[in-house]
Hints:
CATH topology of the largest domain: Aspartate Aminotransferase, domain 2
Number of helices: 12
Bound molecules: pyridoxal-5'-phosphate
CATH architecture of the largest domain: 3-Layer(aba) Sandwich
Largest sheet: 7 strands, mixed
Cofactor: pyridoxal 5'-phosphate
EC number: 4.4.1.1
Enzyme class: lyase
Family: Belongs to the trans-sulfuration enzymes family.
GO molecular function: lyase activity
Amino acid sequence: MTQRTSPNMGEFLHLRGQNLSKGEPIALPLVQSSMYHLPGLPEDFPNYGRVSNPTWTQLEHALAHLEVAPCLCFPSGMAAISAALFATLKAGDRLLVPADGYYVTRILSSQFLAKFGVEVVERDTAEFTEGGFDGFSVVFLETPSNPGLDLLDMSAIASAVRDAGGITICDNTTLTPLGQRPLDYGVDIVVSSDTKSMAGHSDALMGHVATRNPEIFNAVEEWRKFSGCIPGPQEAWLLHRGLETLDVRYDRMCTSAALLAERLANHPAVKSIRFPGLENDPAHALAKTQQIRFGFLISFTLETEAQAEEFINSCALLRPTTSFGGVHSSAERRARWGDAVDPAFIRLSVGCEPVEELWQAFSEALERVSKEPTVSS
Length: 377
Ligand SMILES: *Cc1c(COP(=O)(O)O)cnc(C)c1O
């Protein structure tokens, strides 16, 4: 079994400080330059802004501390996912993706990779292991799945895929390296949308790839260099700043989510709920074996679409928005994007507000919607 790792968060906050010379800024400098002063031989120096940037390098140093693995930063989660897929797949390969995971990964695969001769196979999270993994070059995992919050057994799947000669990629966006550590369970590559709770302030899109496999790392780095799919220094800087409070924000969000999930589960207006931290959730037992935290996303269903809309739009402490992981609690009906869920299904992202204020706002909104006559939708 792979060694279990966990980042030391005190050390994390002093990563930069430990290597400073007298007079250097404590905060990370934002280096906005496409060119570097480069007389003579260019080896081992930053040479061009598409290839390297000191702000990215510092960000990647911080990300590597969190993942306990070398990392490469990208301008969005999808850029990181594209890099991982394009760097590992070739014509004739088969790729397995979850049918109920983040939908853009499926579109990217079926619309672009398929055109280059990659056979794309989709399976539901609940039946992911059925049929085995023979003949798959790459198996893409998302656990918990977004938005259904079903789980995949990372350790069992990673070893089955490896035995069959393939590699695994896990999208760890919803839990972050503080909530789940796929590389320690034998997964080859972690991809993440750092647009969500990693950056955490809803003001930047970013992503990263983490892997302990040097060949894969080089391939992903070359993809970035040659595709030109690179982050702007300003976004890299914003993510670095967000990471400094990740531990505090994430702890608050997960702790609040656990309490709110218990209360929502017992509320008469809530028809059903999924949260891996609930004792009677179908994913609870597996979550306890492979997650450090149960996360800050709660999926629940009210009676009707109209009730769900009203709850989201009338709750004082909820922003109606797609995307999640910000300091502000937010929610949306996933059916509006065509996810295969009940029209009254709500994905709730618990933010950093004090939990009792949140509960008060939620219960007031639930009270309001349940008083209204039930119109069938
Ligand atoms: C948002 C998200 C992505 C895509 O990230 P962007 O930063 O929007 O490109 C990928 N996977 C999951 C699970 C996501 O939630």
